[in-house]
Design goal:
This is Sphingomyelin synthase-like domain-containing protein. The protein is mainly alpha-helical. It folds into two domains: 226 residues; 48 residues, no CATH class. The chain is 55% helix and 6% strand. Strands 1-2 form a two-stranded antiparallel ribbon. Helix 1 packs across helix 3.
Length: 340
């Protein structure tokens, strides 16, 4: 499905940006408007999208709900990856080469040779593969829910990375982004949408720094990996957490040592991935908007013993309230009325 979406994306924009006047026999005369051609392309695209929705509804009736939602979220992730890849190409298109900025990580961690630059990617892929293999031994519903959450959270994360990456362009610290190195930037607007090498790590992009998408992926998988060991012994859970933290530290060190990102890119990825995980863990709608807040209603307090600074608090219930609920004042309702 990933390859099909990439093929449709590239084919669509190839048709939209295709100029028939460049070929030997043109179907459009110079000066003739090509608006009908654009409308035709968009009509075909919308038709394919409607057909996709129809097939999705058809599969929903045949598939188990957890498997269906996992498939939809992963397909959404692939499509968001295509969009983010184009945004990364746009960032590279706008990027201007310059000397790397000062970074505390570069000062503390020496640069490693180019042949070891992919070590951080190997750590990322290895950790994800371990989680995938471990999830095969879980109940299908639990496994499907875990990877459905991964697709949803990662989709939002990489969209944020793609649309925010070109707002502030820093000089890339990687060797191929420094002055004097060959220029691998897209040559035209058309290539921004057609070149999808960043989906597979085959493109040498520059400028897509804040924040680190690879680090965000790793943090999200690490947070979701708690589902893998819920039924295990406490010692196993502790060992897994130690392994997880060690993996994250090694990944960050090798990422900085290869000069792929500045330290601030990785630190921002920690925060953004954790916040997105906390907000979209349960749904596409943020949790604080989807679920009501909880407040504790205290009915009675009594002083214990001679020490007036200590008191025993009797908590009767917890009420589910929404943020816009009008709070009752102390003058209108007393604790005795609550108790009765």
């Amino acid at each position: 499905m990933n390859y099909i979406l990439i093929f449709l994306w590239v084919s669509f924009f190839s048709i939209v940006f295709w100029d028939p006047r460049r070929v030997g026999r043109s179907c459009c005369q110079p000066g003739e408007s090509s608006g009908l051609w654009f409308l035709f392309c968009y009509a075909v695209f919308i038709t394919c999208f409607v057909a996709f929705l129809f097939l999705t509804n058809l599969f929903r009736r045949k598939m188990e709900p957890s498997l269906f939602y996992m498939s939809c979220n992963l397909i959404t992730l692939f499509f968001c990856g295509i969009v983010t890849s184009s945004m990364n190409n746009l960032t590279h298109y706008l990027h201007k080469k310059g000397p790397p900025l000062f970074d505390i990580g570069f000062f503390l961690i020496p640069e490693i040779p180019l042949q070891y630059a992919e070590t951080s990617d190997c750590i990322l892929v290895g950790y994800i593969m371990i989680c995938v293999l471990r999830s095969l031994f879980l109940h299908p519903a639990v496994r499907n829910k875990m990877w459905a959450d991964f697709g949803r959270i990662s989709s939002i994360m990489i969209l944020c990375k793609g649309f925010m990456g070109w707002w502030t362009l820093l000089p890339g610290p990687a060797p191929h982004c420094r002055p004097g190195s060959p220029n691998y930037a897209p040559k035209s607007i058309k290539n921004i949408f057609i070149n999808q090498g960043t989906m597979f790590g085959h493109a040498l992009n520059c400028g897509d720094l804040i924040f680190s998408g690879h680090t965000g992926f790793l943090v999200i998988v690490m947070l979701l990996s708690e589902e893998l060991w819920k039924a295990s012994k406490p010692q196993v859970i502790k060992l897994w957490r130690v392994f997880t933290v060690t993996t994250l530290i090694l990944f960050s060190i090798f990422c900085i040592a290869a000069r792929k990102h500045y330290s601030v890119d990785i630190a921002c990825a920690y925060l953004v991935a954790f916040l997105i995980f906390s907000s979209f863990r349960l749904s596409w709608i943020p949790s604080h908007l989807l679920f009501p807040a909880t407040r504790t209603v205290v009915l009675h307090t009594s002083v214990s013993g001679a020490d007036t600074t200590k008191s025993d608090t009797i908590i009767v219930s917890e009420e589910q309230t929404r943020p816009h609920v009008h709070w009752m004042s102390a003058e209108s309702v007393s604790n005795e009325q609550f108790a009765s």
